[in-house]
Specification:
Elements (H helix, E strand, L loop, with lengths): L1 H33 L3 H14 L4 H13 L3 H14 L4 H13 L3 H14 L4 H13 L3 H15 L3 H13 L3 H14 L4 H13 L3 H14 L4 H13 L3 H13 L5 H14 L4 H17 L4 H13 L4 H14 L4 H13 L3 H14 L5 H12 L3 H14 L6 H17 L3 H14 L4 H13 L4 H14 L4 H13 L3 H11 L6 H6 L5 H13 L3 H14 L6 H9 L7
Helix pairs in contact: 1-2, 2-3, 3-4, 4-5, 5-6, 6-7, 7-8, 8-9, 9-10, 10-11, 11-12, 11-13, 13-14, 14-15, 15-16, 17-18, 18-19, 19-20, 20-21, 21-22, 21-23, 22-23, 23-24, 23-25, 25-26, 25-27, 26-27, 27-28, 27-30, 28-30, 30-31, 31-32
């Protein structure tokens, strides 16, 4: 007996020493984990398992670290082992269930949630998850029983009762389904919404008599109840009572107490039911106008009105008026600002376009489209310095997802502005930047090439860039003129004539050359210069004289001299 006692004492000492070692290494592992030394922590927790292979805590922590290191399959294995070793510890069960739910493995998570609900019977969040999974997996009776448990915890609630109603209907038990709704009505007799919901359910099932009876009961208590009126609209619609439906709808629509959400729903229903004829369209427009008289500052209603006008292809001026009202209420409304930008740009209404661009620059500084258009407007009226300031700020503040094509266009406008200020080196640097963002920017390629040719610089580069523009747009007279002019500057006169004839065809009438929008003074002068160098003196003089006659802002003293003396002089 004494020997046995000695052996037991030794075993107990060994166990105590093993536990002490385990506690020490668990503490050291926790320190490493909390300081972010994940490799060291995993090594220490693994050592803990060598001391005690049944340490659920070590397995759990290894699982957590594995998930942190994105080793999900390994992490799941560790967590499952921890739960198997300690099946009553919700500290281990709950994270595993949460991970499985996040991965969409609801059926795998189900037994874990069931275990939690056994151990912690008052966990309403767990019961909600259970009811949802039971419902999805077809275990409808279990779902109902779980909702019953939830109801005992939370009390009678419309959401729970409505879910139970749907489940009872799904299993074909209409008696218990409507008893569930009736219990809500009994529990909260002063809340008429439950009785309205119940009547609506009868209505959806085709029991119009019962539905009407319950609606009448609500009407006797509160005849102005908006929810009742909305439910009655569906009743009239299903029963084909169109005149009653229209009258009831308008009554709700124009009632001062009706909120905007219900008004929007009613108008949306009108749009869905409308016929393609113009009379129906006008009726809806009239209702928009009357509703907006009641609440002229509702942006949601105004934007829906604009969308309807666009859908019915009404004049753009009508949409513009509504969008302007949106901005008067909400000055930073981006949708309205962008729509008006496109509207004014398409109509070349530069005064209004400038105003909307300045608004856009102030309220949406990261959107490069506003400084881009504003820069072009300013440059067009010779405010080149201000244009550069606006464009510089816009490019600097642009959002990261700004289209490269737009950035390229902005640098192109900057280049044009610098050239207008006779800062040619700076202009060419801007064009180079533009081509970095879009190597196929046709406008940039044309302007860059043309300005190089005017300065008689790098003509081979100019020719290459210009040729790309006419390949992209072979009928564009501006680009053809640039290419012909570069060939002229290279003394390739016959080739220049070939391309210039596409810009100013030899058989063109004087009336056409004087009125064509794409035939400018500069183009006529170029055509005359090319004709002169190809020995066609009469045609050259004729074209110079027409160029002077057009008399736009490209009329120069050298051109007047050429036309007057019928002789070529080189521009300086």
């Amino acid at each position: 007996m004494r020997a046995i006692a000695v052996i037991l004492t030794m075993l107990l000492c060994q166990l105590s020493m093993a536990q002490t070692r385990l506690d020490y290494f668990m503490a050291e592992a926790a320190k490493s984990r909390m300081s972010g030394q994940w490799s060291k922590a995993m090594e220490l927790y693994t050592h803990c398992l060598q001391i005690d292979s049944c340490s659920a805590e070590a397995l759990y922590q290894l699982g957590r670290i594995s998930f942190y290191l994105r080793q999900d399959s390994v992490g799941l294995e560790y967590l499952h082992k921890a739960v198997d070793l300690d099946p009553d510890n919700t500290y281990y069960i709950e994270p595993l269930a949460a991970i499985l739910l996040r991965q969409g493995c609801e059926e795998d998570a189900l037994p874990l949630l069931e275990r939690i609900s056994e151990l912690q019977s008052r966990r309403s969040d767990v019961l909600s998850h259970l009811a949802s999974i039971y419902s999805k997996t077809g275990r409808l009776e279990d779902a109902i029983a779980t909702l019953d448990r939830l109801e005992m915890l939370e009390g009678k609630m419309s959401q729970i009762s409505n879910e139970k109603f749907s489940l009872y209907m799904e299993i074909g038990d209409s008696v218990r389904a409507f008893a569930e709704l009736q219990s809500l009505c009994d529990e909260y007799p002063a809340d008429l919404s439950y009785k309205i919901d119940m009547a609506y359910c009868y209505q959806q099932l085709g029991d119009y008599e019962k539905a009407l009876q319950m609606y009448d009961e609500v009407k006797a208590v509160d005849p102005t109840n908006v929810s009742l009126q909305m439910a009655m609209l569906d009743y009239y619609l299903l029963q084909g009572m169109d005149s009653l439906y229209d009258a009831a709808r308008d009554s709700i629509l124009y009632a001062p107490e009706t909120d905007t959400g219900k008004r929007i729903v009613l108008i949306q229903q009108m749009v869905q039911r409308m016929s393609p004829d113009s009379a129906d369209t006008q009726r809806i427009i009239d209702r928009f106008d009357r509703v907006l008289q009641l609440d002229s500052t509702n942006v949601e209603m105004l934007t829906m009105y604009a969308a309807f006008l666009d859908y019915r292809q009404k004049p753009q001026e009508m949409i513009q008026a509504v969008m302007s009202r949106v901005l008067s209420v909400e000055p930073d409304n981006e949708m309205a600002t962008q729509w008006l930008l496109q509207y004014y740009a398409s109509r070349k209404d530069y005064s209004s376009l400038e105003e909307i661009c300045r608004r856009g620059v102030n309220y949406h500084p990261k959107d490069l489209v506003y400084p881009y258009f504003l820069g072009m407007i300013l440059m067009d009226r010779d405010s080149n310095a201000e244009a550069l300031e606006v464009l510089d700020r816009g490019i600097r503040m642009r959002s990261e997802d700004t289209r490269h094509a737009l950035v390229s266009d902005a640098f192109t406008v900057k280049g044009d502005a610098y050239y207008n200020m006779d800062k040619h080196r700076e202009a060419f640097l801007q064009y180079d930047s533009a081509l970095v963002y879009n190597k196929d920017n046709i406008l940039c390629l044309n302007n860059y090439a043309y300005y190089l040719s005017l300065r008689n610089e790098d003509l081979d580069k100019a020719e290459e860039m210009s040729y790309r523009t006419i390949k992209a747009e072979p009928d564009n007279k501006t680009y053809l003129d640039t290419y012909a002019w570069i060939l002229f500057m290279q003394a390739k006169y016959e080739e220049a004539q070939e391309y210039m004839d596409k810009v100013v065809p030899p058989d063109s009438s004087e009336h056409f050359l004087m009125t064509d929008l794409y035939t400018s003074t500069a183009i006529l002068e170029h055509a005359g210069d090319v004709a002169w160098m190809n020995g066609n003196v009469e045609r050259a003089a004729y074209l110079w004289q027409l160029a002077v006659k057009r008399g736009d802002d490209e009329l120069t003293p050298v051109l007047k001299k050429k036309a007057r003396k019928r002789k070529y002089y080189r521009n300086k």
